[in-house]
# Entry
Amino acid sequence: MKEMSRSRRKSSLNPSGNPISPWLHIDLALILSVVVLAITGIFMVYSATRGTDPDLYDRSFLSRQLLNVVLGFCVMVFAALVPYRRLRDWVPILFWGSSFMLLLVLTPLGVERNGTRAWFEFGQFQLQPSEICKVAFIFALASYLEQFDGHLNQKQLIYALFLSAVPLGLILLETDVGSALVFIAITMGMLLVGGAQTRHIFLMTIAGITGVITIWSTGLLQEYQRDRLTSFIDPVSSQTEAAYQQTQAQIAIGSGGLRGQGFGQGQQTRGEFVPEQHTDFIFSVVGEEFGFVGAVVVLGLFAVVIWRCWRTAKKSSDLLGALICVGVLCMIMFQMFQSVGMTLGIMPITGIPIPFVSYGGSSALTTFIAIGLVLNVHMHRYEVVR
Amino acid sequence: MIGQRADSRSRRLRLAILGAVAICLFVPLVARLWYLQIIKETAFIERVVDNTTETIIERAPRGRIIDVNGRILVNNRQSIVVTLDKEEMSTVKTSDLDQLFFDLAREISLSGKLTKVTQIEAAYESDRYGPFAEVPVVQDISKELQVYLAEFSYKWPGVGTTIITVRDYPYGSLAAHILGYVGSLSEGELSQVANAAKPYLANDEIGKAGIELFYENALRGTPGRKTVVVDRFNNILDTTEEVPARAGSDVQLTIDIDLQAMAEQYLKEGLDIARQQPTKFEEEGVIIYRAPAGAMVVMNPRNGTVLAMASFPTYDPGLFVSGIAQDEYDKLIDPGNNLPLLNRAIQGTYPPGSTFKPFTAYAALDTGLIGSRGILGVNSMYVDTGVYTIPTCEGGTCEFQNAGALPNGDVDLRLALTYSSDVYFYNLATHFDILPGFDLESPQVTARYFGFGVPSGVTLSNENAGRIPTPDTRREAYRQNPEAFLTDQWLTGDTLNTSIGQGDVLATPLQIVNAYAALVNGGTLYAPNIGLRSLNPITGETEVEFASRVTRELYLPAAYTQPILDGLAGVTTWRRPDNGQVGTAYSAFLNFPHEDWPVSGKTGTSEKQSIEELIADYGLFVAWGPNPDPEYIAVVVLEEAGFGGAVAAPVVRKYLEKIAYGIVPRHLSSEEEDEVARQQVQESERDLEAIFEIPLVTTGKKS
# Structure
């Protein structure tokens, strides 16, 4: 603890550093790429939900996604402004509060969709507590790991794992495999940078693989979930809805070719051949209408986002900021890879939205808050918090 | 400080690992995008087209077939069909499926349409349908059953109903052989019509026989085609191409349904009467007049059109409407049932017997065998003693007789035809054979000239060519089947048999009547027409007029025709005042209105050779009128029925008499019959009410 406070003092007293006003350290590249992604998402949601008859077009998806993005942007600004060290005091409330919501969603208060009980419904609006919980969890784990200055002994590691097991267990009870995987990815990434020992990482990997095999072979998963997870290997022979979904998504993307069919011109999208094409499978719309060029540009924007997160993690003056950035990086990275990968048919189907692009309020809110935290770390990295 | 630095170095290393992992994750995504969008693009574009475009084929109704006066012989009607959805049924267990079929068969049978379980199973398992098809299993169910099946659909998984258009026959089995029938396209037919102007789908119906087959191209409707863009749920978004279905053309026949009905009726009656002749006991064995089958053709000799064409036994084309059951079809092609599907008028071949004589006479006149350089003058008398012995007999049979060896006395060419003297023609035939400068094949040459031995060209399919034997064909026949002949040599006796239409001579009834038509119309040999025109089904305007087709104009000077036609006129009218000798059909035409409607004819009685048993003679008769410019010519052939003059001539006489008096009865369609019956019931009810003076409450009253 002594060393840490000294390092803090040192960086803040660094004579070569610029004046510490956070306003001078806004990461414009990150904001810009996130905004472009979100706008692309709005267009894609329009394409995916415009339906077949222009007269009967249901604008509710478009307007709600617009609202989601605007709201998300505001929350991002808010999350960026209050120095993240001060936010630390709220972490227990946020973390345990959102975990309680995860518990609550399992009660009849929650709503079940596609076999997953993960939503609260308030009239027209839905809230997915597992999304909100992601940010709280990142912050909580970062705060906990920060204490050990990059050296975790076995006991500390086990406590950290317990911390992540709370939301993870509850999410698995919702049978929301996708979100659970996101939590695992976040935990792994943060433990890596947070100072887990190499042999512990090795052991955890072994344990993880064993766990997956156990879950698979003991029949904890429903038949349809197994189908979803395996159908991507051989979609032609599989007659399931999942295989159909993935095959249709690949047809849509493949038919886009180099330049795409053009905005609003995708026949596959228009005929709504890909189920969930406005949410988890929205990348099929990108691929069909904007082609290889458009898809690579979108991936490029994600690369920029990830790069900026990584850079902020590296530049962060303290471990807390670095770990927050790593957590957000892992979250966005994994969600993007998993979601795009399943659309392209190289990953199994797990219902994960693409950050910023997919339709959905909770997801937009969470990812914007997460980016807000990264911006926060970037802006306040020279600031001394007493 | 050192720890601090080590920490930050370790953190930097760990961040670098994380960054490397992140970069690595992008590689498969971009690679996969490249594979899908650049390498496989074309394949996926095709899949999108597959997905989003659908072609909807709308079946078009077939054209109707109508008679010369516009009365509808073949119509279309709606039929409710029970279908089984193969896709849905495939999820049902086999044991449940058996039970379902059983219940379905029982339910349909209860509704009044007797149906076997095996019938449903056979239809369901037919390999004509793909795994997702809705297979039609039972046609013509009641409206009530359709409603019931729809209402209790949960009890009947995969069972549905649909409405299809099928052929309807207002006159039942009448003219069945002419009209033919339709059936599902067979594999072979499908490949034949692959490039037809009006495209076919598997399971489409196609004409299988008769007019339905011959005028398939005209009758078939042009299927409609609609190319549409659909969404995932097969909702139609856009129509990109639309070709409406067009009903097939109506085909009008030269057939007059009243004449047709009368022909079928009298043919059947003629056979019934022939069957009543007592069995004949002869030295060689027993002759039974079984009269199992026959044919009748009526033509207009002026233009070569067919007015009626009857073949007995006949069949009900309605059997084919629901897809004929195999056992029913087997009955129709069973020789034991006398092959009801066979159109004997064009497919049955018979020795023409004495009906062949006028053509032999023509040969004699044309070659000069009768004439100044020949053996007889036209009016020279020849003594017919009833028996003829070939003067230069080298083997085989040498002695030939008239029927019953009855002498006809002095006959010239006219009387030889009137009395049907075989001996007179044996004499001619012998001299064709033996007299220098004459050709023994002259009768055959003439026969082919008049259209024998080749298909007449009637506008019906599967016509038989008949057979005109020659020394060459004899050699060939012997080579193929030495058992059937004594020698491969053509003997004088063969020429004799040929000259009177016996031996190996075979002709279809249509060939016979068509040859006579040329003889009596001044020498025009037509290819008989049975189709008159095709009509637009909506406007009724003529689309194609099927013009008369002349096979050839015959050389027919009065010097040839006069003696022949005179002799044939005598067949029905001649009675020699002194000894009462009469033409062969004199008694059949007794009291016929000869003055108003002069009629001529020729009888024929031909022997059918059989090794196993004695077979009664085939009776033939051809007649025409009113002379001298006949409008009607008719032929009747009765199998195993006896003398032509005795059994066949009365049939034609009755027939022509109705025409001569203008009292051809109007034949009613089944609907018209129902209407008449209803009126009769009403009338009798009125009578009863009048008697009892109380109103009777009946269904007839209500309507």
User: Anything to note?
Assistant: Chain A has 15 helices and three strands. The beta strands of chain A are 110-113, 116-122, 125-127. Chain A touches chain B through 49 residues (CB under 8 Å). The two ends of chain A are 14 Å apart (CA to CA).
